[in-house]
Amino acid sequence: MSGTALIGVLDYGAGNLGSVMNALERLGANVRFVAAPGELASCENTPYTKLLLPGNGHFGTTMESLEKSGYAEALRLWINRGRPFLGICIGLQVLFEGSEEAPGVKGLGLVPGTVKRFPGRKVPQIGWNNTVARPGSRLFRGLPEKPFFYYIHSYYAESGESGAVAATADYYLEYCSAVERGNLAAVQFHPEKSGAAGLRLLENWLGA
Question: For the whole model, what pTM was predicted?
Fold first, then answer.
């Protein structure tokens, strides 16, 4: 991907953002970290064409950081105005209303449903798992029927909006591993760590 489109990556203090930046740059994207919430809140004057929220970590800590920095409200404005967005790992979970990982802490509330802890003993799920995409998903276009992606998480999203579920995976139970609604998209797995399949998914998002 090339051209003048600028991809914003939100750095809210989470680690491991370098691999996301490297994957996007490998695909030819023009990408930089978002400097301040105002760059997103004023959507008409924003320099960014698309926004990506990556990272991993604790639901409560992440939401506290987003709220205190002003990014939470900026994200709500960006997504509610239909601007292109991709969340990765915790970037998917915070879209929901809340999580068992941090009882009483509100998520962004942009997708109905809650995040729950896996019921089994072997938690977190760490490693490769196949993913079943719904027919017609733009994110998974051109990928095999059940592509493998790299996962690392102890909590899973239970969506209250079945039409927003773009893909599922199975670990003790079937759960939502991706959401897609208009220009809103998010995945539980790490495409930047998932080889060719992950790069193809990111390329699909960049070109959507």
Answer: 0.94
| Marked catalytic residue, from 101, 180, 192, 203 | 192
Q: How far apart are CA 51 and CA 32, in angstroms?
A: 10
**Is there a domain that residue 26 lies in?**
yes
Per-residue pLDDT tens for 122-177? 999 999 999 999 999 999 999 998 999 999 999 999 998 889 999 999 999 999 99
Show the CA angle centred on residue 21, arms to residues 86 and 207, nearest 5°: 50
Residue 145 designated active-site: no
Using DSSP, state whether 23 is helix, strand or coil.
Answer: helix
153 in catalytic set: no
**R_g of the chain, CA atoms, integer Å:** 16
Can you give the CATH number for the domain in which 145 is found? 3.40.50.880
For residue 1, being part of any structural domain is answered with: no
Q: 192 an active-site residue?
A: yes
Domain count, the chain: 1
